[in-house]
C-alpha cells in the first residue's frame, strides 16, 4: 500500500508539472501563398511540423490575385503570403488582415528564361523581337506577369513582341518554356533556379519595374487565430528567412 501511494503521488506531481499531458487536438491551418514560394514554404512547413506536432500546414498555392479574390469572397484561409503588395493592400483596406501582422518579408527578381537547347540566340530582353512566341503570367492576376509587362514597356520592346501566351501563374510560364512551346518566358529568379530545363538569359534591372515585395499577414477571420499566429511567428523568424534566402529570395527584414 505504501508503494502504491508513493506511485500515485509521483503521477500526481508529474501531471502538475505537465509531464504525461495528452497532446492537444490537431489543428489544420490553410495558408494561401504565391506559387513562386512553393519550394521554400514546403521546407519551412516540414521544419515547423517537427516542432509543433498538433499543427498541420495545408498550402493553397496559386497566383496572388486569384488567392486574394478567394479570400475576399470568404474562403476559409488563416494566412496569406502574397507576391505583390497591392493584393495585400486590397485585403487590408477591406479589414480582412489581422491588425499588426502585415510584414514585407522578402523580395525577388524578374528574369528572362529560354529552353536549355534553344537555337533562337535570345540573350537579352531586347532579343525578344526575334521570338515567335513568348509567355508571361496574366498581368491582372499574376504579379510576375505585371512586372514582366512593365519591364518590356520600360525597355520599349513590348510592341515588338510578335505573340504573347498568357499563363495562369509563373509555374505555367516555366512549363511552356521547359517544353519549348514558346521561345522564351519571363518568371521569377527563384522559379528559374528550380528548373534544369531552362537557362537564365537576362535579369531585369530594378528600375524597369515596380518593387517586387512579398508581404505576409494573418487573416482576421481565421478560425484558428492562436495557431495561425504561432505559424506566422515561425514564418517571419530568422530560421525561416534563411530557408527563403536559400531558395533565392532576398530578405527585407
UniProtKB/TrEMBL annotation:
Belongs to the bacterial solute-binding protein ModA family. This is Molybdate ABC transporter substrate-binding protein. GO terms for biological process: molybdate ion transport. InterPro entries: ModA, ModA/WtpA, YvgL-like_PBP2. NCBIfam families: modA. Coiled coil: none annotated. Molybdate binds at residues 36, 64, 144, 170, 188. The keyword Metal-binding applies. Pfam families: SBP_bac_11. One of its GO terms (molecular function) is molybdate ion binding. Keywords: Metal-binding, Molybdenum, Signal. The keyword Metal-binding applies.
